[in-house]
Amino acid sequence: MDYYYSISYVLYLYCLLACSGSFYKEVKDNLEQAYQAGNKLKYVIRSVDYSYLVKDKDGFRTDVEYPTYLYNDRLFDDLNYLLNKSIFLDYTWNVLKYTKEGNKTTSFDEYSNWNDDFQFGAEFVLNTYTLGEPAETSRVLTEEENTMILENLRQNVAAIAKEHPETEFLSLFSSV
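Request: output the structure for the sequence above.
Response:
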């Protein structure tokens, strides 16, 4: 299956959750919105980022304003987004101008493709790999941290999977 076809197929059957920097509650809210919109998801592929497990189960990022108005059923407050000057001037206008000039939008095969910049394969990796020093100390989680992890997983990961047995949820654990 080529990359373009797989992305198109993903848009129909899969929900790839790539919410950079999002806390677990934000990702769960996005998933709930996908289901409420009538999508019949067959698979959900979700990264389990260990660094965000020890956060409040109802927490959101604080470095950006979370657009809760996009995730409710009130159409009129979406005007905050639709009439957002920076969205129009910084993003939409440039795309329209680029297209009007006869340029072709980058395909998914070309977007963020850095394959030509790097070498791949076991032979290359084994020639450059060095084993790091083992950690000198490890830390035991506090009771509060254990509770946060369990609450986050129960509320924001396991609960939605239980609510949707028709969907196969696949979790991957990030290495960074």
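The beta strands are 14-17, 43-48, 168-173.
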